[in-house]
Amino acid sequence: MPSSAAFPIEGGCACRAVRYRLESGPLFVHCCHCRWCQRESGASFALNALIEADRVVALADEPEVVLTPSHSGKGQKIARCPTCRVAVWSHYAGAGDAIRFVRVGTLDEPDRLAPDIHIFASSKQPWVVLPAGVPVVPGFYRWQEYWPPDSQQRARALRAGR
What we know:
Largest sheet: 7 strands, mixed
Number of helices: 3
CATH superfamily: glutathione-dependent formaldehyde- activating enzyme (gfa)
CATH class: Alpha Beta
Structural class: alpha+beta
CATH architecture: Alpha-Beta Complex
CATH topology: glutathione-dependent formaldehyde- activating enzyme (gfa)
Radius of gyration: 15 Å
Order of helices and strands: EEEHEEEEEEEHH
Shape: globular
Mean pLDDT: 93
């Protein structure tokens, strides 16, 4: 994960109507290889930076939140630009509205947030080669086993504030 000196960073949709700024580094960055993310993104995986919603500041128009189905059956809320329809982040039922799963590809400098973990690797495309040194799990994982201590502390603070 990049140092806190690398933040804030900005991002937004393709037409630039929706713009946002991440005020700090994310809690953790998932590279999800599940079939659901493959279908939804139209790509081989989804790359999401998990961050507290109050650390994402709107700089322009607010996205439109669209409730969509999810593999869990609980649905997810996808925040999309109302003009170009690009997804900029999601809220999953398990994390609620307190954590945004920001689409790393919508950052102005997406290469600054590499994955901290590869999840649902059991369904990754066979030609995707995963880098050495990054944890790989066949499905989901227990965040307490992988997140750095400062991210775990931030997550506990979120839970306590509910």
